[in-house]
Amino acid sequence: xxxxxxxxxxPRVERPRWGLLGAVGVVIALQAFSxxxxxxxxxxxxxxxxxxxPSEDSKKEPQDKDSDAAKGDKDAPEEGKAPDxxxxxxxxxxxxxxxxxxxxxxxxxxxxTVEQIGAVRTKEAVTFLAGxxxxxxxxxxxxxxxxxxxxxxxxxxxxxxxxxxALPFFLEPPIPPGSSPEVSKQLKEEGHFxxxxxxxxxxxxxxxxxxxxxxxxxxTPEVRKDDLAVSLLLRAFAKFKSxxxxxxxxxxxxxxxxxxLQVSILDGFRESGLHDxxxxxxxxxxTKSADTDVQxxxxxxxxxxxxxxxxxxFVAGLGHPNWEVRVICIDSLSxxxxxxxxxxxxxxxxxxDKRVAISAVRALxxxxxxxxxxxxxxxxxxxxxRLQDDIADxxxxxxxxxxxxxPTQWESWWAQKKSTMKTLQPLTAEQLVELKTKEKEQITQxxxxxxxLRIRSDSIAFLVDCxxxxxxxxxxxxxxxxxxxxxxxxxxxxxxxxxxGAKRGTTSTAKARKKxxxxxxxxxxxxxxxxxxxxxxxxxxxxxxxRFNSLLSDFCATVFPxxxxxxxxxxxxxxxxxxxxxxxxxxxxEGLTNVLGAVREAFKYPQVDTIYLLSDGAxxxxxxxxxxxxxxxxxxxxxxxxxxxxxxFHPKPEERQLLQAIAVRTMGVxxxx
Length: 673
What we know:
By secondary structure, this protein is α/β, with parallel strands linked by helices. It folds into three domains: 26-202, no CATH class; 245-438, Leucine-rich Repeat Variant (Alpha Horseshoe), CATH 1.25.10; 449-672, Rossmann fold (3-Layer(aba) Sandwich). It contains 31 helices and twelve strands.
């Protein structure tokens, strides 16, 4: 399948839901505008795996080694590598030269340079970024990066550039001459898509004068015509420091007739920690809205800001017809350690929506008192899939023993221990992994495993790191690592320099290693383990596989494009099993690592409740900051309750910490293999 932009796959956001409206199975990835009708590359999702189209680079004539384009910029990072964060920050002139030298590269390869300009807080940097919006070779992906850089600069001049240059670009993106009406429409939709990715830039941090100017001037008549632009700005305003933001936002939410804008403002209040009495009264008012999404946002605001104060609302909300409201209510009662929590959560274990039942399990686990054991094991025998898995894990963590999903053994054990066990000391996620390793569960041969982790959910997604470092030699956990060199925010084992004329990314050393008996790469191990797991999954199992590096490749979208309208992965049968195994075997290691992009892609499928995330390093493209990545994960998973099990090969301490944090926050486990 042709490569796609790393952020081209749109993440499913909880609300508001502005989707790309193009034909199913077609993804548009803008190249830098060149004035040609073919400036937009169209990637068809029905392309077969393993039949990759030739890259643009492979079609080009070789450049003269002495040409300016071939020489490039001496300060530019090597292709396939992130800039070295430990190096001296480049000057604006160096970054401008690098940007010019990268003009033949694809948009996603130029984004790091544009985003680095945001660290240069000068008028000259603002002028350069503003000028990009009117340049010939500029598309929505780079415009999104430039907008985020303006937000990082955060001056009043940058605010003017945002409103006068950036926002008009997204609302009316330039259309290459000769484009068909269909392509023109899709490019306009893409402008909206990338505008949503600019949200961190819209929020700043801005200087005080810049904030005041934006509050007064950003909502221009042209912006007011576009719900998405207004929504994103209002959410950004909620994160400002100015005291004037609260009256402005309260006025907007009460006078607006748009439920999408009401949701955005209520979410902005919650995310920004704005919880004064007027805001809480506004939230309470909107719990009675006729629109379900507005109700959800209002309940969520009150559950975050004042759960104890509104206890009666949350107890009553346990019977709300919407599953998201029920999740918010049980989470809010759990947060306040409500006196009747065990009673309420025990009833919800039988909720018709498994996400609510999973939330109830988490509430009982967090309660961690002896009276939660009995309701958990009593429902263990009738629970299925992910819910059964969570109950078994909760019991193991609460008690320090492990009987898997056998309710009879749990009941017998509890009958002996109940009278003497007055308190519980729950295990950490790491201790749970140790317990499972030490006390082997009663797992039958028919139970599918993936790197030793049981697969009991009936709707799963496997996320497989296919970055360049996955071509390194696999060494089992515990083996001594090779000397390593930094690659941006990830590290990989040091490699020999390629021989003259060798293709980038290959070395004579790597080739020699592959000739040794028993040599295998990390990706070889990943593919073998996954294909074996898929071969053992039962008929009807719902699954997806997402390969990620600098780009994303989605099995369902690629091989079964008809699933994209409902976002329902196909159930396993002989044909699907063969195709997904072939898809896994076709995986190649190249590029950087977009962890959050892969997780976002998995979240597009509402049925998926369990993810197996395999990566050998920290993210180096997309969202690379650890705290920002975890915040975004928390936001996406607030009510979905997706479990993410993380697997890694030879991680560095900071990489281990990130993957552990992802697993712990989602009730998953982290293992190294």
